Amino acid sequence: MLECFYMKFKPSISDKASFLHASILASNDGLVTTFAVIAGSLGANLDPKVIVILGVANLFADGFSMASGNYLGAKGEEEYESAQHQKFKKTPAIANGIVTFIAFIIAGVLPVFPYFFKIPNQFEIAVAIMTTSLISIGIAEGFFTSKNPIYTGARSLVIGGIAAAVAFAVGVLLKGVPI
């Protein structure tokens, strides 16, 4: 089915850039938000089973949310261009949504993966996976965009690390709140 779709739709450079944007945005967000759920849960001293439940629930809910948001945004852009009797972008909105969902799920499952197993140092392994993945996403972005991959890898790591630190701090702060 995808081959049939690809045969009918031959991506232009603009389409490829749109898919790259969706892939980088979704994989980075999947990785960071899922890890943030883990970090916040750990900061609140939640049970590892709860961490898995929250991580996987976030993975699919946020992945679908991002995919549908990307689809609706691309669809709105298509409809606006059509209403203006102009057509600048050929990328089908559904393709953007699919790329977003797949990239989000693939990257987002990585930090929760160690929690599926009863192994020691789950959080440390999740940190190592997140660190390696963020750097890899940034490096890949650098290669695709002809930017310095060391810079783009470091930028990705710093921004993702800040998000994780914020989530952990919120978990620690809310741990003592009587609810």
Description:
By secondary structure, the protein is an all-alpha fold. It has one domain (16-169). 81% of the residues lie in helices and 0% in strands. It contains 6 helices and no strands. It has helices at residues 2-8, 13-43, 48-83, 93-112, 122-145, 149-175. α5 runs antiparallel to α6 (149-175). The longest helix is centred in the middle third of the chain and has 36 residues, at 48-83. It is globular. The N and C termini lie far apart (50 Å). The model has no long low-confidence stretch (mean pLDDT 86).
Can I get a quick summary?
It is globular and about 55 Å long.
Share of helix, binned: over 70%
What portion of the residues fall into strands of 2 or more residues? under 5%
- What would you call the shape? globular
Query: SSE order, as H and E?
Result: HHHHHH
Query: Which regions contain 5 or more consecutive residues with pLDDT less than 50?
Result: none
Q: How many angstroms does the end-to-end distance come to? A: 50 Å
> What count of structural domains?
1
Largest sheet: none
Computed CA radius of gyration, to the nearest angstrom: 18 Å
The overall average pLDDT, rounded, is: 86
Number of E-state strands:
0
